[in-house]
Amino acid sequence: SSWPKARRPFQTDRLMELLDQWPVPSKDLLADQVEALQGTESGAHPFAPVLRSKGFTWCTSEPFNRVEWVHAGKHLGMSDEGRWWSTYSDAELREFLDAAEMEEVKKEFEGEFGDCRNELVFIGIDLNKDAIRSEMERCLVTDEELENFLVEIKKSEIGQGLGWGSAAASGI
């Protein structure tokens, strides 16, 4: 189940709270996990049937960096993948990308935040897609938090060079 791309960051504390509540499988074998999930009650945690998830995130605590999300069984890891392409100026990009690579990179740009986004896929058995979507959306910054986030971003050296904030609450 793909979770739609979100073009606003996760509020890091809410995301960490969600991850702390994530039900980690108690069995080592996939077959045991599947058997256990078949008896799961409908009121169970929406992430209980998730066996694997992957993708990348944009979080308020790392506003300029793409964070890889890798989850399989008992392991859930998040690692810094370096800066989002859109946090570099075109001149900086030309230093390490040729014209064809730059054109390819720019295909991912959308709206004022360029390629910054959350893009995750959840894999499991009998997933409640609506409940997963709701939990993930609850972790996104609100309009007010986005405004405050953008004010803080502008205080940093990288943030001063970005055009972020001109359309803060307009359908991101």
From TrEMBL:
Q: Which InterPro entries does this chain map to? A: CobW-like_C, Zn_Chap_cDPG_Synth
Instruction: Tell me the superkingdom of the source.
Output: Eukaryota
Coiled coil ranges: none
Residues spanning the signal sequence: none
- Please report the stretch or stretches of sequence annotated as the CobW C-terminal domain: 5-140
Question: Could you identify this protein by its name?
Answer: CobW C-terminal domain-containing protein
Say which species the protein is native to. Eutreptiella gymnastica
